[in-house]
Design a protein that fits this description.
Layout (H helix, E strand, L loop, with lengths): L6 E3 L4 E7 L2 E8 L2 E8 L2 E4 L3 E3 L5 E4 L5 E2 L2 E3 L7 H9 L4 E3 H11 L4 E4 L6 H15 L9 E4 L3 H14 L7 E4 L6 H9 L3 E4 L1 H9 L10 E4 L2 H6 L3 H8 L7 E6 L4 H10 L4 E4 L10 E7 L5 H9 L7 E4 L3 H13 L4 E4 L5 H12 L5 E4 L14 E4 L6 H8 L9 E7 L4 H11 L4 E2 L3
Parallel strand pairs: 11-16, 11-17, 12-14, 12-15, 13-14, 15-16, 18-23, 18-24, 19-21, 19-22, 20-21, 22-23
Antiparallel strand pairs: 1-5, 2-3, 3-4, 4-5, 6-7, 7-8, 9-10
Helix pairs in contact: 2-3, 3-4, 6-8, 13-14
Length: 441
């Protein structure tokens, strides 16, 4: 039986059932303590403390007093009308759990640690309240008031697009700066005035050293994808930047994973933070159909071509373990008549962005990616992910397949496992809590 995160086997509990209009609510006793849970498909999702509403339905509330659901209404979050209008025009009415839990804390001025896996709406969870706070305090000194640090150009562009979307009706300027391109246009934009700066650490320090950027008026500092930023060797750059921003500030720390060293670093730079941990790294979205092919290493490419010959798959993201392997796959796919491109750390940022844009616009059907490069991929309607090689770290599998099944859409994730990768498969299935179905070639 598949066991989802936060679920308990029914047999472990003593039960007394009650039924309400929104579902079956049961009271359980575990180790002598009462628990309430929603019963669904033989699994119990803990919902404690339970608040019964006037219509007899149930809801769970967090410490801010806001109902906790997977999807919630933006109108409950006290968002100002210009941002609410932008959110509505962008087609959003419901907030994800990370947004619903995080936004009130940020608007209250708290430091925040937010841990949520890819595809949960993490960027909007800080973009919306940052815009609102800056708009509320318009009369402060001019200059850069919010700094957002992120590890890659792709992520900087993605964050910039979020600020453009949600800040369209506000008189606030934002700018993304990153290396790999000439600095002239970025410096010119800085000289025209910027409220919100989105930056990769290297380019930021470069322009600070040239006197093009002053960080003395920062009110809000955001570290996004902090785990990848530190994994990629930016820890010393981040510490240099921290020394240049005011100690009196609001700090927001977001990460897809939270190993002990990352948590320790976060607490060293934050002040009494509120910690939001909505989606454990061990959980995979229920909207993703997962399966595994047992295949010899030399037969993997033929199997990939066979799968991609299905023209109903309009886009597929394929994960390779190495940069060389990604390039080799692209070369062989092109020989087979399948348009593909690769993104990885050895590609120039222009080449990576071009490949990503072509993939988003369906100019190519197949994108081959390594794990770090894939962090900048943000596509709601990505139907298909292939693990051409299984990752060495089980948590990476969760992040990989988190690229599909987003925003309520269904997705498919298939994995190729050769005889040397069975240990990796065992570890992955142990982490996610169930065995994937075996696909037949």
């Amino acid at each position: 039986m598949q066991t989802r995160s936060g679920a308990l086997h029914r047999r472990n509990l003593q039960t007394k059932s009650s039924h309400y209009s929104s579902g079956s609510l049961k009271k359980y006793v575990l180790n002598g303590k009462p628990l309430f849970a929603v019963v669904k498909e033989e699994l119990l999702f803990l919902a404690n403390p339970i608040i019964l509403t006037a219509d007899g339905s149930w809801e769970n509330r967090n410490e801010t007093g806001i109902p906790v659901h997977t999807i919630m209404n933006f109108k409950e979050l006290n968002i100002i009308p210009p941002i609410m209008k932008a959110v509505t025009e962008a087609g959003y009415t419901k907030a994800t759990e990370i947004q619903h839990q995080t936004i009130p804390h940020i608007l209250n001025g708290n430091d925040v640690i937010g841990c949520a896996q890819t595809g949960t709406g993490k960027t909007a969870s800080f973009a919306i309240p940052v815009l609102q706070l800056l708009d509320k305090n318009k009369e402060t000194v001019k200059g850069i008031r919010t700094l957002i640090l992120t590890p890659t150009r792709e992520l900087a562009v993605q964050i910039s697009e979020n600020f453009k979307t949600y800040g369209v009706f506000l008189n606030l300027k934002h700018l993304a700066i990153f290396g790999g391109v000439p600095q002239g246009k970025q410096v010119a934009a800085l000289n025209r005035g910027v409220d919100i700066l989105i930056a990769t650490p290297g380019r930021l320090l470069d322009l600070v050293s040239q006197g093009c950027i002053k960080l003395s008026h920062i009110e809000i500092l955001v570290l996004d994808e902090a785990d990848r930023m530190l994994d990629m060797g930016f820890v010393n750059d981040v510490k240099k930047i921290l020394a240049k921003v005011p100690s009196k500030r609001q700090t927001l720390f977001f990460s897809a994973t939270m190993p002990q060293e990352i948590r320790k670093f976060a607490h060293s730079i934050l002040n009494n933070p509120k910690e939001i941990n909505v989606t454990p790294v061990s959980s995979t979205a229920e909207t993703v159909k997962q399966s595994v092919y047992f295949v010899e290493k030399n037969d993997k490419f033929d199997l990939l071509v066979h799968i991609l010959d299905d023209q109903t798959i309009n886009r597929s993201l394929v994960f390779a373990r190495t940069k060389h392997g990604a390039d080799k796959l692209v070369k062989n796919l092109l020989k087979s008549g399948i348009h593909a491109a690769a993104i990885h750390g050895n590609k120039s940022q222009n080449a990576r962005q071009r490949a990503l844009d072509d993939f988003k616009n369906s100019k190519i059907r197949v994108l081959i990616a390594t794990d770090i490069a894939a962090r900048g991929i943000d596509i709601d309607e990505l139907p298909h992910v292939v693990n051409y090689e299984l990752p060495n770290v089980p948590e990476t599998y969760v992040h990989r397949i988190g690229r599909t099944g987003r925003a309520g859409y269904e997705g498919t994730a298939v994995s190729f496992c050769d005889r040397e990768e069975k240990k990796e498969l065992i570890n992955i299935q142990k982490l996610i809590g169930f065995n994937m179905s075996v696909a037949v070639q």
